Amino acid sequence: MTDLVHLDAIAALRAFRSLELSPVELLDALADRTERVNGDRKTGVNAFTETLFEEARAEAERAASAYLRAARTREPTAPLLGIPVATKEKHALAGRRLEQGLVAHAGRVAEADHPVVERIQRAGGIVHARTTTPEFSCATVTHSAMWGVTRNPWNLDATPGGSSGGAGAALAAGMTTLATASDIAGSTRVPAAFTGTVGYKAPYGRIPGLPPLSADWYRGDGPMGRTVADTALLASVMSGRHPADHTSWGPEGAPIVLPEDPVAALRGVRIGFSPDLGAFPVDPEVESATADVVARLERAGAVVVPVELPWTGEQVVRTIFAHFGQILAPAMVRESGAVAELAPYAQRFIADARRAAERDDLVESLVLDAAMQGELATAMVDVDVLLCPTNAVTALTADGDYLDGIDIGGDHRKHYWEAHLTSPFNVANRCPLLAVPSGTASNGVPTGVQVVGHPHDEQAVFRVGAGIEALVPREPWPDPIG
Q1: How crowded is residue 2: how many other Cβ atoms within 10 Å of its Cβ?
Q2: Which domains occur in the chain, in start order?
Q3: pLDDT in tens, 114-152
Q4: Could you please report the per-residue DSSP string of 12-55?
């Protein structure tokens, strides 16, 4: 068996059960890879806030013994038994630091596990590392004074995205098999697209979060993997009602079933297509990659339907920042101690959100949300899913703050968050979204598309996402140190 560090979780579990591979072998390969490629906080991939390989190895040894026992007794094994999972630092691990990149939280220790960590460990997953984020997960780049700069393994000058940048970078670099993420404006999907991985934003409440901010209806925790099947597996483990989160719903551990022939399953599926959601300028390379996905879907027998959305860039920014000004920005101010100590991107976010809250109160922000939700529902009325690019640009610089906005194809946008076509679907947060790769840009950084489902229709996005994965050729995984 070759390239253990990029072995997908489904294949690893199969090899564990047949005793062709030991969980210890897989973990040791990831530890060696991490030592070789993670590098330093200034120039390396720098995807982990800390590693837990010593404790993880003891867990891997126990998992190996469990597989030996199961081979004799034919007893079933836990769904993630022996699989290494890197968790986003904000997903609390009892007894470990919980700092969220904030200087004011330096040395803070979690008292209990986050619900998704609890479920991963109960399913036999092994938490061997914790991944970097920007400060308070408020940016689509991943750097902070506390943890340094996280870089994209495909191009070290570029960011892996954010806020789950460490998760995407670790998956692409071969330092973990699965990873956890979260998403309030694209924080799972943006890094999935920039790193050639798969990210899932579940419908609001389907995956339990940690109160009180789990009550923020833009938010959601979720899985990332290198394949659609791996991401579906981790989603099924993480999902379902949990007593810690009263917004959580649905059965725990319900499997997401993928078609046996994902290309054949595309026949007759009606896929709405919007190249820009009506609101975003898009780089020509991203346009080309997305058009290639559309052509492949049509050749496979899907019915691609052009969809018009009436959204504008001003509408999207006004809507999301009205919301952030009521909840996220005040939470950041409360948690940060002194705003002046935050990174420039975090200070800018708070200032923008405060101004938005002065313009639009909570009731008006609900009015703005409802308008976008209604427009999306109308646009999707005759299709099974909607397809659009994930990011409007081919890359962001690894250490950029983007305080002056961003130029996209000759169009200057005041806020760099307009470089991503993701936040409208946090406004419409009952919709499931799967981000899958669409190709590779000339700078070596992957591109991606989003598959948007009707509210709560998880099965549809995984069905179409699996088909796209089967149709789109993939580049070999990167080796960031050559």
Answers
A1: 5
A2: 4-471 (3.90.1300.10)
A3: 999 999 999 999 999 999 999 999 999 999 999 999 999
A4: HHHHHHTTSS-HHHHHHHHHHHHHHH---TTTS---EEEE-HHH
